[in-house]
Write a structure and sequence with these properties.
heterodimer; A: alpha+beta; five-stranded mixed β-sheet; four-stranded antiparallel β-sheet; 37% helix; 17% strand; globular; B: alpha/beta; six-stranded mixed β-sheet; 13 strands; 15% strand
Chain lengths: 577, 473
Amino acid sequence: MTTRRSNGKSRHDPVRHDVPMRQWTILAQDPGVPAADGSALTTTVSVPAERLERGPKGHRVHVIDYDASADRFYRSRTTGVTSDPFAGVTDIRQLVRDPYFHQQNVYAITMATLCEFEGALGRPVNWGFRDPSHQLKVSPHAFADANAYYSRDSESLNFGYFSDGSGTLVFTCLSHDIVVHETTHALLDGLRPFYLKPSSTDQAAFHEGFSDIVALLSVFRSEEVVQKALAPITQKDRRIPLGQLTEEDLTGTSIAKLAEQMGAALEGVPAAALRESLKIKPDRRHYTSEPFAEEHDRGELLVAVVVRAFVKTWLRRLALRRDDYVGGINVAVVAEEGATAARQLLRICIRALDYLPPVDLTFPDYLSALLTADLQLYPDDDKYRYRETLTETFASFGIEPANRDRADGAWDPPCGDFSMAGTHFERMQRDPTEVFRFIWENRDALCVEPNAFTRVISVRPVVRVSNDRAILRETVVEYVQTLKVWANELAGMGIEKPDGMRGSRLITLYGGGSLIFDEFGRLKFHITTGVRSTRQSDRLRSLWQRGHFQSNDASARIAKMHRDRVLRPVQTLQEGW
Amino acid sequence: MAARTKTAEPRTTRKPAAKNLPAAKKTHAGARAAKKPNAKPNRVTLRSYDVGFGDCYLLTFHYAAMERHVLIDFGSTRLPKDKVGTGNYMERVAKRIAEDCGGKLHAVVATHRHKDHISGFAMKNGKGPGAIIRALNPELVIQPWTEDPEARRDATKPSKNLSAARARRALHVGALADMNRYAGFVVESSRRLKGAHLKGLREQLEFLGDDNELANRDAITNLMTMSPKRSYVYFGAKSGLDALLPGVTTRVLGPPTLDQTRSIAVQRSSDKDQFWHLNAERAGFWSKRAAIAAAPEIAFAPLFPDHVEKRPPWDAGWYRYHAQREHAESMLSIVRSLDDQMNNTSLILLFEVGRKLLLFPGDAQYENWMYALGQPGMRKLLGKVSLYKVGHHGSLNATPRDLWSGFAQRGTKRGADRLMSFLSTCDNVHGSEDRHTEVPRRPLVDALSEESELHDTRRLRNDEYSIVRTIPV
């Protein structure tokens, strides 16, 4: 993906890229964040040049402009579907009034986000729909409400519109961060379907927090947006004094002002993440403190950590240039470093998904996964010290790596001898049954619960490429275990039954693991949480306290998750009749 | 800070606000009763009128030389079918109430502003069931503090002209009004949902929207003006009934004020500023919905008139089917949320008459109950309840399990001291068995039947208007 302004040409250059790409004009953030001269702040994204039908409808995304509030369809372009008629348009009113632009904006941002995930993970990423389906439906004007959500049931992203207090129409489909946020929900659901199941507070917080992180870092990949954020500290000669390139100035002035504009018209929509995250100052007590015990607060904590890590990374990159720019650094250089830091951090955040347990994740797990993911591709981190920055920043909010056995916090390789009896690695790279045989033969070495129902849910060969062209080939496997027990059987398993829960309640315990094989078929990592894990007590208590015990509707949960970010309904310990 | 907070606590009595409506006739009944400080009721009669899906209770205190009548709620969203008689059903019930109380009500309690609790108070041009109740000259109307007209007036003023505590109260009351507005929008939206697959959702949306919308305004106005005194009460406030009901102690157990609610929240999150911040955000959420309701043309008229597609694309039919359902479910989820919040403004009254404790919790759900149940000695007191008006027509979460299990007079054996429960409800109106949300909830009704003497309006014959039960005290 590129964020440079297009020169209008979108012809495929086979020397530059192995996949033909196409440029699309999008809003860099939203209509409330204009360029310095008041014109539209646009940018371009580059996505695979595919055959397109009206919609636009491509092989992964199908824009359907349907409004359920009025039961009405809006027309999409029928001619010149593959061209970008909005290149060079800077009149914001023209863009806001034109539904064709809205359709293009959601198509391009959704596809660009998909490409970012596929590039970072080194493989195609499927959507998480119940029946195998390749095309995500996207409705830019789905309903009259201040909300936007991903739905697994209708295989879609739905963007609402509403009137603000002054009568101006606000279209959530025109907010870059909202579109990326919802696309990330869809992608994360495809990669980790169990993360939408009610579980611990951290897991409940992760879907929303991770979607915010990807959305914010995606916005900051745009140099136009970063330059806009830097405007308050940029001098007339387009330089920024070195004294103002500090964490306080960047978070307190530049980014904070941008955050105000980004969220101006969008209260109640998942768009105020940046503003809220900046309010959370580092404090080692935060992670375990009562104010962050609620899932939405916990999610904002994760965003705060990553935004802070982004700023620190940005400053570390700039620190290497300080000697060259005594009188101040040109804003273009500062913006370029910021965009690069955002791009690289985003990739690390996405890659870490493969190194997480498939169920019941915690933030310490995520930190260990981040460190492992980066260590795999960049063993040498001396120059910009990304891992050190991440470790320090997470620690400053009270989050330590899950694995304390290694100094660097990354996951440990598995102990023990693993039998490859009866298995063929070539098949293990693609066939769940073959991997299940491996798990079956190595049940004791893997410490897999014998009484639980075990299912391999994905096998994904990956090829990852680092910035310096190092190639990493791995096979990522997820298996999930489920065990149904009565609540009064929990004590016998060493799991605490929540206070007030009936002993006759049937409980489903989830466990599972991620197996990472190297290119020679050796097991590199086994990241697991068992059905008898001590985490189960926390998980059950958390579910019970949040009143989510009977909830199982994944689709409704995202829409509700967004509303509850504002409404924060009272959590009761009560069991209904 | 404490002093400012105190100014925001609702005063408990008010004089009539509206000038264009006749003030209720002054009587001396209350004064006469007050002259007999030692008078005590010797029995209590409770009448539960069949209003279909709604509540209507007449509580009569029998003294040696007099009777005192308190009407608790009078509303319905679904009238009972096949009742004998002709004419407006609620007017017929109102006339029965007038007969049963001998033409005089001493107090009216409106637990909260839901239609199924107050629609019977509606009056237009001096007619309707509300006019009949008004003519019974209640001396006192009791409502929750959220109905205080002063707070509602404040809600229309810029907050900078108010003290911090009054501004917070106004914000909350303003949000309740915004919820009513959005409920009206939901009713309008539900009418546009076409197709058999949306039938269940449409009915739920219509029901909850109708119960919550501003159409109850006539009833609210009548309640504000039908008596010489009005009480807007909260946990721990004086009800104003003591002078009217000698020998009876009436405790207000809910709703809590914002400060009382905050005290629970602060225990849980340790940050009171955060509590007020969240409250402001919630109000913002509802004001955004009120803005949507205020301009329905934005939702229903074409956004881009020149781009309307005349024929739905063939490849979009599957999505359309699901999108309609999800949109309706999303609205339903919002309207359920506001319905819960309205229920949690409900009054909870506990009458103590001799050794008998009579509990009337309106539609209070757990959020409302939380403050009261956390107060010292309250669970012990509630354990002695002899008569329980089942909360929220028997829904799954309005009878806290720990409250129910704490009732000491529960039991399977019949006897004079066995717990009595009164359920006013209607089948197949609210919730669904598939989702285990049907009202009344079957496991709750089973528990009520087995462990208490249950009086259920659904068991009334077509020629019966009320359940009547007299309890010696």
